[in-house]
User: Which sequence fits this backbone?
């Protein structure tokens, strides 16, 4: 392997800041590799908060133009010295002619080395180097942590603006509890992946892609306190204009705007009226689209 350019980073969420760094990689000739890490191997066990799964991250990076994405478990490289990481991984394994990273990139045992050290080590190995400045928005750098906090507080439209796309959920339509049908409101159900950042519980206006077809919808992310006490978080979406069950079909739900907090209603009739108001709010939001 020779003549490769390598972009280093975790890239959880592949947000606008990550895309600025990726833009530097795409300017290079030869094979363009993103070298990243399995997000779950970096996140403490049992802690949710990822902006996307590793599979979606890989898909996004390839769609944006990377020739190859190499993802390693963090445990495989965390104890390497900075010198060994550059010489064994970047030079010998990847044949890097140029290395790119964000200016806040850390590496080497204990994360003791940063972009300056990487610049010197690359120079010593006759490898080009570029540190990409952080991308600022509103006086603050765009970061995964900043976006996660916005999602968790229900500020989804601001989170989406920093991401450059709509935060949401992917999967196949699964069987729910049948309560939507019982109340005359069909829903598309997705299991909630506990590794992902949990939005503020409540109802969101959403954009839906169902087996290639597009819909607007009202999506409830929550525990359904009016009808259940099991505490299980579900993602249930009523897609405007959809009458079929669509079980097993691929579904993408992108959250657009927070409508209201989840609450326990006194009866199912109250819940039905609330959902009707949610649908009305969604129609109003998307009336010009």
Assistant:
């Amino acid at each position: 392997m020779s003549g490769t350019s390598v972009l280093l980073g975790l890239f959880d969420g592949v947000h606008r800041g990550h895309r600025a760094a990726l833009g530097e990689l795409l300017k290079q000739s030869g094979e363009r590799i993103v070298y990243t890490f399995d997000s779950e191997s970096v996140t403490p066990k049992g802690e949710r908060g990822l902006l996307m799964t590793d599979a979606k991250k890989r898909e996004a990076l390839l769609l944006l133009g990377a020739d190859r994405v190499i993802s390693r478990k963090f445990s495989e490289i965390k104890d390497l010295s900075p010198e060994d990481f550059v010489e064994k991984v970047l030079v010998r394994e990847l044949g890097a002619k140029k290395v790119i990273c964000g200016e806040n990139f850390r590496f080497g045992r204990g994360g003791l080395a940063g972009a300056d050290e990487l610049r010197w080590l690359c120079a010593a190995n006759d490898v080009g180097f570029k540190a990409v400045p952080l991308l600022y928005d509103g006086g603050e750098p765009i970061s995964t942590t900043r976006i996660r906090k916005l999602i968790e507080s229900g500020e989804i439209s601001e989170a989406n603006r920093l991401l450059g796309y709509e935060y949401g959920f992917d999967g196949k339509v699964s069987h729910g509890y049948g309560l939507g049908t019982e109340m005359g409101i069909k829903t598309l159900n997705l299991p909630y992946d506990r590794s992902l950042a949990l939005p503020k519980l409540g109802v969101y206006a959403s954009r839906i892609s169902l087996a290639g077809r597009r819909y607007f919808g009202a999506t409830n992310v929550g525990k359904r306190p009016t009808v259940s006490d099991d505490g299980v978080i579900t993602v249930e979406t009523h897609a405007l204009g959809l009458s079929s069950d669509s079980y097993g079909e691929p579904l993408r739900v992108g959250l657009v705007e927070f409508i209201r907090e989840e609450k326990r209603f006194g009866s199912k009739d109250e819940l039905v009226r609330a959902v009707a108001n949610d649908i009305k709010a969604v129609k109003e939001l998307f009336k010009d689209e």
Remarks:
- The chain has two domains: 4-141, 167-285.
- Residues 137 and 208 are 28 Å apart (CA to CA).
- Residues 268-285 form the longest helix (18 residues).
